[in-house]
Every structure is written in C-alpha cells, then in structure tokens.
Amino acid sequence: MLAVSSTPMKQFHVTTFGCQMNQHDSERMKGMLTSLGYSEVEQRDQADLILFNTCSIRENADNRFISHLGEAKRLKSENPERIVGVGGCWAQSVKDEVFRRFPFVDVAFGPGQIHRLAEFLNSDSLSAQGYFEFEEFSGDLPSHRERQFQGWLQISQGCNCACSYCIVPSTRGREESRDPDLLITEAERLAVDGVRELTLLGQNVNSYGRDLPVESRIRFSDLLRRVDLVEGIERVRYMSPHPKDMREDVIDAHVELKSLCEHIHLPLQSGSSPILKRMRRTYSRERYMDRVSMIRERLPDCGITTDIIVGFPGETEADFAQTLEVVEQVGYDQAFTFNYSPRRGTLAAEMDDQVPHAVKKERMSRLIDVVQRRARERAQRFVGRSLEVLVEGPSRNDPTRLRGRSRHSKAVNFEGTALPGQFVEVEVTSATSQTLTGSERLLSRISV
Ligand code: 5AD
Ligand code: SF4
Hints:
This protein is α/β, with parallel strands linked by helices. Helices cover 34% and strands 21% of the residues. The protein has 15 helices and 19 strands. The strands form five sheets. It has a six-stranded parallel β-sheet with strand order 2-1-3-4-5-6, sandwiched between helices. A five-stranded mixed β-barrel has the order 15-16-17-19-18. A three-stranded parallel β-sheet has the order 7-10-11, sandwiched between helices. Helix 13 packs parallel to helix 15 (357-379).
C-alpha cells in the first residue's frame, strides 16, 4: 500500500472509449493508479478522480462523450476537489482547446503521456491545467492485470516551496518524507513482484529526508544508494527534483550507481531571472545553468528534460526570448510545455499583468519549434549506438514493431522479437525529436 499519510484512500473512475489499444491503455492507467494508492469505483459520482480515455477525432462530435463530460462537470461543481482528466487521442488532437471548451477539466494528456499522470497526481502538476506534449505513445505503465515490470514509489508528499503559480503548497501542506526503511521494504516487495524499473515520486524529491527525525534522517542521494542495492531493481528514476536542491551528491549518485538512469528532469519554468523571481522559484537563470553545466560535465550523455510555463503574468517578449535562449543552450531531450493558467488562491492569479491567450499561443508555438529542433539535434548522438531498451510492447503506429524506452528515457521503436519486460540491446539507426528507431541485436538479450 503506497498511500503516505492517514488520508483515506482516493477513488478513481475511468471511462474508456474506442479501440482495443485504448482499452489496454486504460488497464495500464488503472495499474498505475492502484500502485499510487487509489482504488477503482464502479460509480462515477463516488470518484475523487474522474478520467476519460478518449479515442480518435470521433469523440469531438460524439454526443455520448459530451454528455459524459457534462456529468463530470456537474460532479465537479458539487465537489471542486474532484479532479477531472481527459486522456487519449481526442485530447491529443484538440490539445489546449480542451480547457477552453471544458474549463472544468484539470488535466489533459495524449495517449503517450499516461505516465505523466502519475506525476500530475503527485506533484506540481495538480496545479496546472497542463497538457503534456511531445511524446508519442509509450504506455510505460504497469497494469495490475499484467506483469508489473515498472513500479512507482511515493517517497514524500507536500511541498515546502511557495511557487506563486502553484496550488500544491496550499492543498497538500508541508513536505512529509516517508521513513526510509519502509520505502526500502516497499521497493523490495515490488522487486519480488517483478518490478525492474522503479520511479521514486514526490513534489520535490531531492529535498527528501530533511523533515525526518534525526535518528532516521538521510539525504535523497543516500536513499538512491539504498534503492540501488535492492536486488532485482535494474533501473531507478525519480520525478521531480527542484533545481535549487539539485546538488553534487545527487549528480554523483548518477555517476556511481549502476541502476540510476542517465536522465534528469530539471524543471526550468522560465529562462528569465525576473520572471523566476516572480514565480518564487528561488534560483536565477545563471544558477540553473550552473546545474546544467555540472550535469553535462559529469554525465555528458545524460538525457535532460524540463517543464516550461509560457505567459506567466508580466512575461514580456524579452523575458520569453530568454526562455528560448536557455532552451537553445541546454538542448533538452524533451520539454513539457504549459500555458500559464491562473489557479484560484495563488499569488500569481492575483497579479494584474496577465498575458493574453493569443500571445501565449503564439509564444508557445515558437517555443515548441525550438524545443523540437534542439531535441532532434541532441537525439542524433544516439544514431549508430547500441542502447539498452526495456521493452514495453508493440509500437502503437506499427504493431509489427516493438517499443520501449532507453535509460535516457527516450522512446525507441524497433524491429525485434522480445517480450514486454525484457531488456534488449537496440542498434539505433535514426532519430527524430521524440523517437529513436532501430533493430534488436539478436543474441544480445540482457535479461528476462
Ligand atoms: N499554469 C501552468 N503550468 C503550471 N504548472 C504548475 N502550475 C501551473 C500553472 N498554474 C506546470 C509546471 C510544473 C508542471 C508539472 O506543471 O511547469 O513543473
Ligand atoms: Fe508547486 Fe513549486 Fe512545490 Fe513544485 S516546487 S509543488 S511548483 S510549490
């Protein structure tokens, strides 16, 4: 059981539309929610989390779907604490429009971003009307009806930061770290159940431990060391660190620990120091870039991904240009981009220089261009190399091929015969901004 505090178990309800592939995705989504301590309910009106997994553009005109959403709206107005999420292909096709047309929707995610739902439910993202872009289908979630080779471990709850756009501090309270011994026992149990890739979750994972009683107090990097020793866990990831707490010891842990993946998610939010100040992020552009340099120096091959907010109140064209500059300089492997959306009760929502929607939209499209171009350029470093891939299943676009993820968190589509949950070596022959393509090196299967 992963629930952290004494809060009662949250309940979810998922409605699935469309094809087999979507049914399968919903199973995976349920598996992930169960491992986060949610339980499924039959009736939508009993759920704290109401999800729709949509399929294709048909949904757009589908009255059935609209009436389902209408019910969700009513339930949300009865209890505003409820979370309404819309995922799948329809969400992907309309993107931000979901929020314009259905303002009661809290989160939208394309078919490739189910795994981001975990973060959304556990972290900052709860505050965002966020749309997670930039990814093709990955479906890297376990389903409770399938073999679980990917697992999640919530290491803390709450957040001691005070980011001015974020609703988490007011809704989730002070940071509370879970006892390290309990976490290790949980990780061992998951490993026995077949989990090979474990993702540690928290609002601000690298401030883990500071609130623990002295006798059990350890740092995040110490926790990583302990998880690394758990037999059977071959890959360790974590979501999300805060740049202000991204210290040498964590970066060194990436160098030292065999299981810790070559991927760091380092949320930028903005490249402009004045905007970062208004966001209360407590780091400047320079300090952020120092962290990036440290990562690049010690882990040259590490995948770096980020979150960026466009159109924060008061963001001028010059501020935005600085964000573009940082994206250009860093060359992220992937970026999750959000139009700023005011959340009730937050400082930023009260700021009077809100940016018009049309301006956000225009900036967003320029941002996406730079993000994608740089991601494509960075991805070329993988071409000609052989990468360890954890197989997740058939490729969504071409079921004769397989898909999986590299340690850098790159989606890989490849020809091969391996089964979900296996590690294989894939020779990469080409790379786009989002996907690597290649073929399985036979006779080189790493483990089952
Ligand atoms: N508006 C837009 N994006 C937001 N995020 C959090 N709050 C908001 C908001 N009010 C984004 C941040 C965070 C990600 C998970 O969600 O970029 O890192
Ligand atoms: Fe919110 Fe900032 Fe805390 Fe993240 S670090 S949960 S954005 S207050």
